[in-house]
Amino acid sequence: MTEPVIDLSNARRVGVISDTHGLVRPELYEALEGVDAILHAGDLGSETIEVELSPIAPFHAVAGNVDGFGASDYPRFLLFRIGAWRVGVTHVGLGRGGLVPSVDMWCRRERVDLLVFGHTHQPLLDERVSPVRFNPGACGPRRFDLPVSIGFLDVAAGGEVVPRLVTLEVG
């Protein structure tokens, strides 16, 4: 059985965030200004995150471990049509040695071109593999020595999706 596909094929720019852990930084509002949609790759940490960000653009999120996975109202996986690509979103995407086996099976079944995930707080863009792996990092409370970061999916002419990481300058 395949997942329903959320159609964002007319979007030109999609904001991608993860691991807010209950914090919406003021810098995030400015960074997301003008996006056509927001994808959150889990660990919202608070029900207010959607309330705070949905006035910017349509908001879509998956559950993370902090959100209680199955106990959350958010699903484990979401599938989108963005430009000409199939974009999958989940929270825990990578394990030791590659994709988590259940995520790998899901990506194959759903023919995912780009996988968005969070959990590690480490920004990652790996275009050498299929599906392309994209972790926007974390934009909530700073953890470890990692940057506060987000991502964007820009749609080029012809429908190609161009992922991009951005480090937020925070006070």
Walk me through what this model shows.
The chain is built from 3 helices and 13 strands; from the N terminus they run E-E-H-E-H-E-E-E-E-E-H-E-E-E-E-E. A hairpin with a 5-residue loop joins strand 10 and strand 11 (132-135). The chain has a single domain, classed as Purple Acid Phosphatase, chain A, domain 2, CATH 3.60.21. It is an alpha/beta fold and 171 residues long.
Write a concise synopsis of the structure shown:
By secondary structure, the protein is of the alpha/beta class. Helices cover 13% and strands 32% of the residues.
Quaternary: single chain
Query: CATH homologous superfamily name?
Result: Metallo-dependent phosphatases
Rg over CA atoms: 15 Å
Strand line-up across the major sheet: 1-5-6-9-11-10
What about the largest sheet? 6 strands, mixed
Poorly predicted segments: none
Order of helices and strands: EEHEHEEEEEHEEEEE
Domain count: 1
What CATH first level would be assigned? Alpha Beta
Helix content: 10-25%
SS strand fraction: 25-35%
Q: Ends: how far apart?
A: 46 Å
Q: CATH topology, what is it called?
A: Purple Acid Phosphatase, chain A, domain 2
Query: Any idea what the CATH architecture is?
Result: 4-Layer Sandwich
Q: Name the average pLDDT.
A: 94
- Dominant shape: globular
What class would the helix/strand composition place it in? alpha/beta
Task: Give the beta-strand count.
Answer: 13
Count of helical stretches: 3
Keywords:
Purple Acid Phosphatase, chain A, domain 2, 171 residues, 13 strands, alpha/beta, five-stranded mixed β-sheet, 3 helices, six-stranded mixed β-sheet, globular, 32% strand
